[in-house]
């Protein structure tokens, strides 16, 4: 009798596993990603930068350039994704 109960439990678990694994995946079209506005950073006047070392100014400028390039990269990824789902 104990073997029969084990067999029934095994069959029920197997049926549950197969029914959930065999279900059809949900198919749909993903929503396009909206592009974001690039922030307007505050402008700094030249005389405010006079107190900076040249190396510090170069680091700030390099960081700004890298940030702009990263934004362009993300915008290209978003555009390619949106084109792929049309």
Tags for this entry?
single chain; 86 residues; mainly alpha; elongated
Number of strands: 0
Number of helices: 2
Mean pLDDT: 83
Regions with pLDDT < 50 over 5+ consecutive residues? Answer: none
Class by SSE composition:
mainly alpha
The helix content is: 55-70%
**Form type:** elongated
| Major β-sheet profile | none
**Radius of gyration in whole Å, from Cα?**
29 Å
Distance from first to last alpha carbon: 60 Å
Q: Tell me the fraction of residues in β-strands, as a range.
A: under 5%
Element string (H = helix, E = strand): HH
Structure explained in plain terms:
It is built from 2 helices and no strands. The termini are far apart. It is elongated and about 90 Å long. It has a domain at 36-86. The protein has helices spanning 2-21, 54-84.
In short:
This protein is mainly α and 86 residues long.
Task: Provide the fold topology.
Elements: H1 2-21, H2 54-84
